[in-house]
Amino acid sequence: MGKRKKIILIVSAVLLVAILARAARFFVGKPEKTENVIPVKTVKPAYKNLEELLELTGDVRGFSEAKVYSKVSGKLQEKKKDVGDPVSKNDMVAFVDRDEPAFEYKLAAVASPIGGVITQYYLDIGETVTPQNPIFEVASIDKIKITTNITEEDIPKIKKGLPARFSVDAYPEKTFYGEVSKINQSVSLQTRTAQIEIAVSNEDMFLKPGMFAKIELILSVHKDVLSIPTDSVGETDSQKYVYVIEDAVVHKKMIKTGISQNSFIEILDGVLVTDDVVSVGWQNLSEGVKAEVVQ
To answer: Going by C-beta distance under 8 Å and a sequence separation of 6 or more, which residues neighbour residue 52?
Structure first.
């Protein structure tokens, strides 16, 4: 073999080895592309009873209340009953020194027109009494009422007999119940609200006039409705949606919802009871990505 041919063969062999080495690195040494899998938690939709509620605050008052005036002028001489004391109808509560010249000295008695408790005095001993200014207030409390205000938009929702429940700070663990008994037919020009009253039985005398009440009006009860946690629901352009997992693949479903209560929301359309709805981690998802359900 000539020297020239020998050189050509050696060079060709070196080139072939180089080409094979590069090919091996491309096919064998190239790392596999791994797909990012997002960890999530899921929940099954469940049937629940949900209540449509209107939350308000109000004041506890006696069911019947009366401001009591003296028929004569003078000075307040004596308080026979004090604030919080029970009284019966026609009980003597206070006495007024008429202090009128040319008349035989005699205290004028002021009686309670109703049975109940004395809720407040407007005058102290020795202060001037006139027939135009009240001396004290009495309220019946075996049955009480709660006064509260509702907005214009809520007026159509409120009917007499609508059930209500409430709590007061004095008994935070106790729930009291009543119903709407009165709806004011006029709306305040200043606040654009209407006053309503809730009648409540108070046989145990737990409730006192002047207490602050946290109220829930029960507008409606939706029984056995499909529901999911409210935190599972996203919203964009006024359209609500959830993500569900099917065979480890994420799918976005548009939904229609109803009322919500206690961190659950009613599902009207878009989700089935068999769906695995993403409850934690859905903010990181998009249609078609891979997800892994973790405990």
So the answer is: 218, 219, 220, 221, 222, 259, 261
